[in-house]
From TrEMBL:
GO terms for molecular function: UDP-glucose 4-epimerase activity. It catalyses: UDP-alpha-D-glucose = UDP-alpha-D-galactose. Its cofactor is NAD(+). The keyword NAD applies. The gene is galE. It comes from Amycolatopsis acididurans. The keyword Lipid biosynthesis does not apply. Its EC number is 5.1.3.2. Residues 6-248 form the NAD-dependent epimerase/dehydratase domain. The lineage of its organism: Bacteria, Bacillati, Actinomycetota, Actinomycetes, Pseudonocardiales. PANTHER family: UDP-ARABINOSE 4-EPIMERASE 1, UDP-GLUCOSE 4-EPIMERASE. It holds the Pfam family Epimerase. This is UDP-glucose 4-epimerase. Homodimer. Belongs to the NAD(P)-dependent epimerase/dehydratase family.
Amino acid sequence: KALKLIVTGGAGYVGSVCAARLLEAGHEVVVVDDLSTGHADAVPDGARFVEGDAADATAGLLAEGFDGVLHFAATSLVGESMQDPGKYWRGNVFTAIRLLDAMREHGTPRLVFSSTAATYGEPERSPIPETAPTMPTNTYGASKLAIDHAITSYARAHGLAAMSLRYFNVAGAYGRYGERHTVETHLIPLVLQVATGHREQIQIFGDDYPTEDGTAIRDYIHVSDLADAHLLALQHAERGVHRIYNLGNGTGFSVRQVIEACREVTGHAIPAAVAPRREGDPAILVAASDRAREELGWKPERTDLYGIVADAWRFTQERAQA
Ligand code: UDP
């Protein structure tokens, strides 16, 4: 059944890919984005676009009657969240509470929320299941965890059908939608900037981790697989219940392995230099995504690291030509 949906943050990386996939699946999409980090030209064709605050603008729309909200809009820089925590408590948590109140007021039945692996902090074991303790090591993760808790209580008290999806390392691109942050901090796009000549070299943040090659291991998930999970989550959401799912490939790759994949895909030498560890970076973050596979029937299709990097590279080159 076609649903009428609001996608906050639909001008951003993950939000634009998900909005595009929702439209392809026949749903009606209104994108709400304040363009603080998103790009107006990333809003998918076929979506109505309302520029504004994720809570205020959405609240203004909800009276029209919507089947659900997918809430992607957020600030998500770990370092910044430690320097300026208020931006994260106000911008992420307070905005989400106001959004929940607006949804309650208008009887909007479904919510899919972008949570994060950063809610777990330094894991006790790997891969990380949803039952692992949540002890975030940074304000960004703490803000997302606080929202998860708020959603749980709103779902119970007010009958909201809610899903939180905890992303691991999202990467790759989908069609004309990809990663184009003004302040780029993510490994794969930074490595590709070396290949395009926009950066001299890539810094490896720490090579003394207790891993095989000494560099940190992450679980890279293709943004299109991530989008699939959002569509499934919408279908499986149940009134009064808040479910939480990890989304990752279940396989980890080290920083060195990622750089090597980028060298192979781009044909560029990509000089790398070892630098100190980045504060708060755990050694290994890999998802156990069995719950999403079993309960949502989710199956990531693009798990190959080279394929993920190749899609990101194609997107980077197309952007350079545009
Ligand atoms: N990383 C790195 N050099 C960089 C950027 C990132 O070595 O210029 C490392 C980072 O320390 C982490 C991994 O690459 O171990 C992935 O970092 P990213 O910021 O992409 O995602 P995160 O895991 O922090 O969400």
